[in-house]
Amino acid sequence: MDNKTILKQLKLQAALMELHDENSFKIRGYQNAVFNLDKTDLDLGSLSLAELEKIDGVGKSIATNINEINQRGISSALEEYLKNTPEGIVELLDMKGIGPKKIKVLWKELGIESGHELKEAANSGLVAKLKGFGEKTQQTIINALEFKEANAHKLHFAEAEKLAEIVIAEMLKITPDIKIEVTGALRRKMEVIEVIDLIVATDDIETIEDALDDAENFEQVIEESGPITWRGTYKELRIPIQLSFCEKEDFVKEQFLRTGSNLHLSLEVKDKLTLKDIVRQQNFASEKEIYAAAGLGEIVPEMREGTFEIEAAKNGKLPELVEMKDLKGILHNHSTYSDGKHSLEQMAQHCKDLGYEYLGICDHSKSAFYANGLKEDRVIQQQEEIDRLNEKLAPFKIFKGIESDILYDGQLDYTDDVLASFDFIVASVHSVLNMNIEKATQRLLTAIENPYTTILGHPTGRLLLRREGYPIDHKMVIDHCAKHNVVIEINANPWRLDLDWRWVHYALEQGVKLAINPDAHEMDGYQHMVYGLLAGRKGGLTADMTFNALSAEEIGKYFAERKQKIAANV
């Protein structure tokens, strides 16, 4: 049993304990255990009961539960809670903006046992009448339910990419003679995927469909399928899968037509013809040939959105997109000084081992008490350790950073003398996410005006498929960053991908550099860099406009000169 599954069960049990009014100290014990175990390198699934009991903060009860999960797949305690809790109530526990205690009130006082029933009660005004709720909480619930419904059965690109690989491998086992590749939104590297869209070249569609009927992992939705299209699901997953069949000689053409957005394919490119018109005139050996026939340079799949790429191609100004090899360092990362899983030295050494020249450490600041944010004395402690590690790991460089919370009024949460001790500051919003667009935007503008703000972190705070970002005027924020020479982050975590790729091109037009940051809380988090890279590429990001494509020497010089300029103006 992997740690992620074990911790998910413990977290659910803690929520159910709260729902059923268990002892608050016991609940807090489970919550603390989840927090601490999430940062451990121990393989919980391989430990005996005696070994589990020796882990700090675990104790006999939690150790017994983990041991049962390892042995049976689920603990008897969790089974008992689930037995006494309606399935719909369990699903509601995962909803943002409402905790177990409020869910219990809804369950016991209104008899609500599902999201559908809750939505009906909220829309009819019954929820607002309950003690401790009110109109504002009721609207929060409605918004959360609508968001959850709208995003049901969708995947982050990172998850969809892996699922597509599994489905392709399974298809090739069933019918090895086919040619099969991803297409559609997945090939364009969209941040959220609604359908695993695959194109299949074959000379025998009927045989493949018969094989799929016999395959236990595939389930067809017959009413949504057609003569050259199979639609259904894979295994118990409810994520839609679409297989589009074509003749082998038509593969390039059909993949091209199914990859680009409708706008990309429908814009006039040559002699009043669209790409859709041109590709249907004949068969092509490659997509490069298709664009050449249109008088254009080849546009990579991720840019085929119909935004600026056609005009750029017409003018011979397609950008040379940033690549992984261009990235020289990794900024915005966390260690065990705040809520990270690995120590500062482990994070630095792993970064070095991956071939990067530098690491920017940005643990949480003191306002983030929930994440063990650094008070001033611990800032000094960390910076002293950085000095020692820089001597040990040279020429690899650790830059002293902090993810400073942007407070309600836009101020950063350290005094200027503390801010001045860092090489750079990532300023981010983590709290009070329910502001209107005017207040939320002004909050960011104030933070951007702070001379110590180097990078604006995840500008909207969104969590894809979980939580909408707070509303901001992107144009105004980007313009302000251009005015105050502030870099904007593309947070590479697949849950965030924020700055949204749709604003990348505008930022570049304003001369704003972008930093691809993984926001890594463990060493494996560095792997997320590729998703930030893809988001940047969708918006036309080049190496020269990527902040962390600067070498260690160049970025060190940039930080030093910026600090000197601030000191001179104080």
UniProtKB/TrEMBL annotation:
<dbReference type="Pfam" id="PF02811">
    <property type="entry name" value="PHP"/>
</dbReference>
<dbReference type="InterPro" id="IPR010994">
    <property type="entry name" value="RuvA_2-like"/>
</dbReference>
<keyword id="KW-0235">DNA replication</keyword>
<keyword id="KW-0237">DNA synthesis</keyword>
<dbReference type="InterPro" id="IPR016195">
    <property type="entry name" value="Pol/histidinol_Pase-like"/>
</dbReference>
<dbReference type="InterPro" id="IPR002054">
    <property type="entry name" value="DNA-dir_DNA_pol_X"/>
</dbReference>
<feature type="domain" description="Polymerase/histidinol phosphatase N-terminal">
    <location>
        <begin position="329"/>
        <end position="408"/>
    </location>
</feature>
<dbReference type="Pfam" id="PF14520">
    <property type="entry name" value="HHH_5"/>
</dbReference>
<dbReference type="GO" id="GO:0008270">
    <property type="term" value="F:zinc ion binding"/>
</dbReference>
<dbReference type="InterPro" id="IPR043519">
    <property type="entry name" value="NT_sf"/>
</dbReference>
<dbReference type="InterPro" id="IPR004013">
    <property type="entry name" value="PHP_dom"/>
</dbReference>
<feature type="domain" description="Helix-hairpin-helix DNA-binding motif class 1">
    <location>
        <begin position="125"/>
        <end position="144"/>
    </location>
</feature>
<dbReference type="InterPro" id="IPR027421">
    <property type="entry name" value="DNA_pol_lamdba_lyase_dom_sf"/>
</dbReference>
<dbReference type="InterPro" id="IPR050243">
    <property type="entry name" value="PHP_phosphatase"/>
</dbReference>
<dbReference type="InterPro" id="IPR010996">
    <property type="entry name" value="HHH_MUS81"/>
</dbReference>
<dbReference type="InterPro" id="IPR003583">
    <property type="entry name" value="Hlx-hairpin-Hlx_DNA-bd_motif"/>
</dbReference>
<dbReference type="GO" id="GO:0042578">
    <property type="term" value="F:phosphoric ester hydrolase activity"/>
</dbReference>
<dbReference type="Pfam" id="PF14716">
    <property type="entry name" value="HHH_8"/>
</dbReference>
<feature type="domain" description="Helix-hairpin-helix DNA-binding motif class 1">
    <location>
        <begin position="50"/>
        <end position="69"/>
    </location>
</feature>
<dbReference type="GO" id="GO:0006281">
    <property type="term" value="P:DNA repair"/>
</dbReference>
<protein>
    <submittedName>
        <fullName>DNA polymerase IV</fullName>
    </submittedName>
</protein>
<dbReference type="GO" id="GO:0003887">
    <property type="term" value="F:DNA-directed DNA polymerase activity"/>
</dbReference>
<feature type="domain" description="Helix-hairpin-helix DNA-binding motif class 1">
    <location>
        <begin position="90"/>
        <end position="109"/>
    </location>
</feature>
<dbReference type="GO" id="GO:0003677">
    <property type="term" value="F:DNA binding"/>
</dbReference>
<feature type="domain" description="DNA-directed DNA polymerase X">
    <location>
        <begin position="1"/>
        <end position="305"/>
    </location>
</feature>
<dbReference type="InterPro" id="IPR022311">
    <property type="entry name" value="PolX-like"/>
</dbReference>
<dbReference type="InterPro" id="IPR003141">
    <property type="entry name" value="Pol/His_phosphatase_N"/>
</dbReference>
<dbReference type="GO" id="GO:0005829">
    <property type="term" value="C:cytosol"/>
</dbReference>
<dbReference type="InterPro" id="IPR047967">
    <property type="entry name" value="PolX_PHP"/>
</dbReference>
